[in-house]
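Entry 0007
Protein: Xaa-Pro dipeptidyl-peptidase C-terminal domain-containing protein
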Amino acid sequence: MFAKRPFSDDYWESKYIHTENINVPIYLLASFSSQLHTRGSFHTFRTAKTSQKWLRVHRYQEWYDLYRPEANKDLKKFYNRFLKGFQNGWERDTPPVRLSLLGFEADGSLTGSIEERPEQEWPLARQQLKTLYLDSTLKQLIWDKPATEGSATHLAEGLTDSSNFIIHFKQQTEIAGYAKVKLWVSCKEHDDLDVADYSNISITLAPYRSLKFEMTTSQSALAPRVSFALHTELLRIWSCQQPKR
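Output (structure tokens):
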């Protein structure tokens, strides 16, 4: 079907699940092991109309967490409250969001991880949005806009080729929320190309409805043919620790 309908249309729109129509109590799980399931869990928590919704973000592989005794006990308490009507203090004892963050040290260990920290909302109201720029010369994410224009190139069909940009935090930094990126993409050899956002596995199943494009005819020597700006929203939740010296 994807070959017959490569672009978003009424057919693909009919497959979209309108989570904003959910009006029953929901217990949502999210983990770091699957971009597909993680994105869906957070999206549903944000959009569901019901006020009776709870999100638990755990730091384990999703199948492992399903069978943990602590997880089963917690889910059973939710079921007892809303399926059997038990007055067991679920609303009083359970915060709307329990957020886990993976701590990364310079040696690769997970020291400093946060496990199911109570929160009142998602995204976090206290978040601070920052803007970073891609530096093609240094291959880094930097805080100040580069003075000169640049580009990064790699073979799109290569299984190991990529353009990577790194940032080193000078102090302990917590990243918990959504990162957005705007990329100018072009192909010098052709006037057409396909773009897939593999940060979300669903792109392999159906046209990705969240991608936005700005078409333009570039006069830049770096991209003399047709190019476009790619806007995409990525879900990133982790905790970055200060590198050890």
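Curator remark: The chain has five helices and ten strands. Residues 198-232, 234-245 have pLDDT under 50 and may be disordered.
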